[in-house]
């Protein structure tokens, strides 16, 4: 299969939650530890594959009924 050219860099799926679930996946973006640590070293096709896996993991988790409500990171007030 030919690699699709990307005109823009593939953005990180990080949502700033950064906590691991019982299976070792990030609760915010569903990436594994290795996927998070190696994101900057990956080419665009590898990043697209990780994003596909993350969507698959999230769907599997939702179907199993274990999905937790989306949490917005809380930033303390500066005033």
Give a summary of the structure in a few sentences.
By secondary structure, this protein is mainly α. It contains two helices and no strands.
- Unreliable runs: none
Shape: globular
Cα end-to-end separation: 54 Å
Helix-strand string: HH
Class by helix and strand content?
mainly alpha
Instruction: Kindly report the oligomeric state of this protein.
Output: single chain
Per DSSP E runs of 2 or more residues, the count of β-strands stands at: 0
Fraction of residues in β-strands = under 5%
Average pLDDT for all residues: 85
Q: Give the proportion of residues in helices.
A: 25-40%
Would you write up a description of this structure?
The structure is a single chain. Helix content is 32%, strand content 0%. The chain is mainly α and 79 residues long. The protein has a domain at 14-66. The N and C termini lie far apart (54 Å). The model has no long low-confidence stretch (mean pLDDT 85).
């Amino acid at each position: 299969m030919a690699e699709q050219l990307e005109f823009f860099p593939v953005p990180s799926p990080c949502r700033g939650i950064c906590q691991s679930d019982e299976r070792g996946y990030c609760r915010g973006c569903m990436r594994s530890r290795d996927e998070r640590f190696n994101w900057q070293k990956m080419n665009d096709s590898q990043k697209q594959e990780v994003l596909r896996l993350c969507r698959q993991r999230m769907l599997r988790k939702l179907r199993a009924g274990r999905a937790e409500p989306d949490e917005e990171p809380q930033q303390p007030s500066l005033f």
